[in-house]
Structures are given as C-alpha cells and as structure tokens.
Design brief:
By secondary structure, this protein is α/β, with parallel strands linked by helices. 32% of the residues lie in helices and 17% in strands. The strands form 3 sheets. Strands 3-2-1-6-7-8-9 form a 7-stranded parallel sheet, with helices on both faces. A 6-stranded mixed sheet has the order 12-11-10-13-14-15, with helices on both faces. It has a two-stranded antiparallel ribbon with strand order 4-5. Helix 11 links the parallel strand 13 and strand 14. It is globular, with a radius of gyration of 22 Å. GO terms for molecular function: hexosyltransferase activity.
Amino acid sequence: MRVVIVTESFPPDVNGVAHCALQTARHLVARGHSPLVVAPQVAGDDHGDGAPCPVVRVPSLPLPGYPQVRVALPSRRLAAAIAEHRADVVHLASPFVLGVRGMAAAARLGLPAVAVYQTDLAGYARTYMGAGEAAAWRRIRSVHTAADLTLAPSGAALRDLEAHGVPRVRLWPRGVDTVRFRPGLRDEALRRALAPDGELIVGYVGRLAPEKRVELLAGVRTLPGVRVVIVGDGPSRPSLEQALPGAAFLGRRTGDELARIFASLDVFAHTGPFETFCQTVQEAMASGVPVVAPAVGGPLDLVAHGRTGPSYPRATPPPYATRCGPWPPTPACGPRTGRRGARWSRAAPGPPSATGSSATTATCSPDAERRWRHERIPADRPAGELRGTRVGGLRTALRELGKGYLEAGHRPVLVVPGERESDEETGQGG
C-alpha cells in the first residue's frame, strides 16, 4: 500500500505528533508498505535524515512566541507529492493547517483520508487565550468530519470527539519501545551527578510550555532531600527557571540518553492536564518508574483504579504513600497494584486504521520490575529507619505533588510499577 503521511510536525521536532508520525512511517515500512511523509520545513540544516522513508518539506514560518513550532505555508508541493506518490490513502497526523490542505488534496484526487486526533486545541485555547474553546471545537469538528475515519489515541479523546459531533471515530492507542525504555538502564553515575547528596529525584519530561503546568512542581522543589529534574525545552523555560530555582534543567534529550534519564528517576511527574494520550507516562512505566499525573485525558487509559494505580475524586485527599515503604499499603494500591502496573504492558492491538496498521507494540514491558526501593537503600540499614529516610521522602514528595494537582483543580492518579504477578493472581492462566 502506498501511503502519504501529512503531518504538522516531524523529527527533528520533539513532540507527540512528530514521534507518532515517525513511528507510523517505521511501522508501515516494516510491514512492506511504501510511505511518504510531507511535513513543514524546519529551521537550520537538521532535517531528520534518519527517517525510514522519503520526506517532502514544504515552506513554513515559526509560530510567533513559540519558534519551535512551525506553520506550513501554502504550497503546491503537497498536492504534487500526493499525486506523484500514487497514494492509496492519505494519513493526516493532527490536521490543523497542512493537514487541512492534505485533506482537500485527497478529496480532489478521490483518495480516502484518515485523520489522527492528537492535539487538544480547545484546551490550548483556554490556556493561551482564556477563550475560544467553542471556536476550537468547531474547527476540529469541521476538519475531522471531512475525513473518512478519525483515530483517537485514548478513550477520553474518543469520548470528547463523539460528544462534539465528530463522526466515524475509532480508538487507536499507542505503544512504547520497551527495548529502548527499560529499568536496566538506571545509571548510578548519572544519579550522583543529578543528586550528589543522594536526594530523591522527581523528574518531568516534555515540552516547557504554559499548558504543561510544570510550575506545579514548585512545592516539591522545596522539600528537603528532593531534587527536581526537568528534561525538555520550550517557551516557558526562562520563567520556569525562575519559578523552580535549584531544579536541574537538562534541556532537550532524545534516544538512549533520554531512556537512561527515565530509568534513573525515582518518580515521574507529568503535570499537563491537556493530554490526548501522554506518551511519556508509558515511557516512565516501561522504565519501571512510579508515575503521578492528573486524572484527566489520556492518562486515564493508563491507570485502572485498584489495579495499576489509584485514582481519586477532586475533593478527596490522595493517600500517595503506597508501595513506597514497609508500612501496610491501602487496599487500592497494595503489592498487587504495583505488580499490575508493570505487567499491564501486554501488547494490546488497537483497531486497524485505513493504512492497515495497528498499535501492537507493548505499552509497558512485563519485565519492567524496577525494584527501586531495594536498590536505593543499603541492605544493612534496619527496616525501622526506612520510614524517615528516602522512603519517607518519596511519600512526602508524592503527597506534595498531589496537593499541587488538587489546588490546580485536577484529580491526580498514581501509577506504581513493581514485581510481576503470576497468572494465578490475575486469573488469566492458560
């Protein structure tokens, strides 16, 4: 099958749309299909030559106030690329500007178009403009109604689309690279460099932009014995460096280096409430790291209450001290919860798109049992001392994160990896 992937972003850009478009192209090539990518021109000489297929770049300009995002300009290259590739289907990754033109070109050529919903434009309108949510949904509905099929990355995204009148929506969940992201990459030398006094490391990975709400980590930063590590770049970095003095800002990291950082964290905190999926949650889970995130949007699919982690209504104080020390855990997050958090990563295929592909990659390795609390604490320390040392710090940090989420009006969830459970425990034997 000959597929043209029209995407608003593509590597070397670092974001969810670019990552998913790249993985889709790789998946199609691996299955014997012939994809072609059409994406906005990037600044500089780095055009992402590691792509698995040809890439056509169209002229673009940086978005005012956010130069890392580039907006495609009108160009005949798009329609010409689709026609010259003799496409069987057009795959539109997060269509907004270039994708809309790709939709129109597909219609003129009589080709089916599949649109992937990946960006919460309505949430961004609330964040950046304080208004315009209704207008954003009108735009989303208009674009996706024109597609033959819309793919939603999470149950929350699917429900939002259907509630706003978008037809022909199917679930297309994401996977994670469990070869790259795995617990065994935990690096003690890196940990010593980031936390020279042995502090507990709470990390965030992602874009530094207003909608990500990274400032919620301010309360955690002030805790004794806790080191906040921020990985990523974006327009909010200068203000965040002022809001989070003492935090380690590592900038943009990718590939194996990023995987090593993930595995070296004690807690992964995702602060943004506008995620249609949230790939970094899965990457942290695959790395065997506990995850704290708002109980809204995409992360809801990654947490099964009482199985892979607890979720709590907004008015309920979240008891975050779970599987973090030698005290009795609560029923919602006992030892089995931790094991399920690691085991949850069975390969769950999603509905096939018109390209014939499906999300069959494991969402978290069954072997992602990090056993981090045992690795962190010397074996000769009496168990009674653990409550007041690193384990107690983890409990306090998680509680502080939960307070920040609740004060911001979000419901937090906690995903805790742990040991694998047997088939007898899950009732899935045979």
